[in-house]
Request: fold
Amino acid sequence: MAVRYINVRSKVDMFSPVVRATGNVAVIGTATAGTDNKVVPVTDPSVAAKEFGPATLPDPNDPNRVRPNSSLTAALTTLFGQTPGPAQVWAVKAAGTAPGAVGDPTTALAAIEELDVQFVVLAATPLDDTSGADSGAIGKLAQHVTQVSNFGGEGKERMGVVMLVKDADDPAVVTGKSKLVSSRMIYIAHRSDDDAAAAVAGTIAGYPPHISVLLKQVAITSEPFSVTSIDKLNKGEQFGDPPQGNGINWLARPALIPGGGVYLGEGYTGNPADMKFIDVRRTVDDIAFKLKARLIRGIGNLRISRSGLRALVVQMEAVLDPLVRDEVIESYSIDIPVLDLLDGDPAALTPAQLQIIQDAQADRVAQILVSVDYAGAIHRLALTLNFT
Reply:
């Protein structure tokens, strides 16, 4: 038998972090078929029509016309008509008379709490004083996305997408109402007979989180707003001023884009004083999840020591370096206060600093501060032409 001077036994323990979706949508609406409050995965409009009834039916009084039938199917059809479009879609039939707006979505919203969705839409439900009240459908949607995002399971962060009443241009329906003023909400002003909320949700869901949704095309028919209406929705802007905003976006038909079409006129969240733009809200959710998914394997294994905390830094760098390379973020910095103390000369540390190390090791808690430089896309250009 040959002598083996070195024996190596290989064990493979490869770790691939969980990946969070970024473009999944849940739609709640009234329908003429299906089971109330049952979550149904939908892959295309034909599945929606089979599960919830056709969007329209022939008008018995006029064979050349059709009448609305299933608000849920109509919204799903509009949703799937967007490009690039959503990744996965779930639908829930809410109790109520179809076709029509959602009355009380409480049970339906509870049914989607555990879904891996990033956008929630109430089909055919425009925002007004009734639906926007705390007890109204959209009021409850705003509470749902906030509650689940803050206290739900990992990766359940989400945003609600809501349309105003057709032709409405008064921001007072949102501003000043604490439950509705939220960076978890997206509001759309429109002049369309289609489900503008479903259309915009499908559009936004098709883009990566860091892509600004400003001037992204929406496959929907909507007449343009007047300059006066846009000034009301957007607070008005002077030359060179930054975007103002009341937390409401609008559908526009820019004359400078060849071929016409309908585009998102801005990319605001429902709370301009917080996270003002939709891509910021989505990117924060995405990076936070990626960091947690990478670091979870260190919990219970890595120690609060120089080597253990440096291993944590390397794992975070593995998440953040690709984001810098892909120009999602400009730069980042990682600061672990207790590691800074562990790197120092023990003899030079003060009693208070030594106590900090002792407390961290005794309590088994390490604070990490990550700063990210996120460079947003250009939303305005102020151009001065000088002729001499």
Q: What stands out?
A: The two ends are 94 Å apart (CA to CA). Residues 300-373 form one domain. Residues 56 and 68 are 4 Å apart (CA to CA).
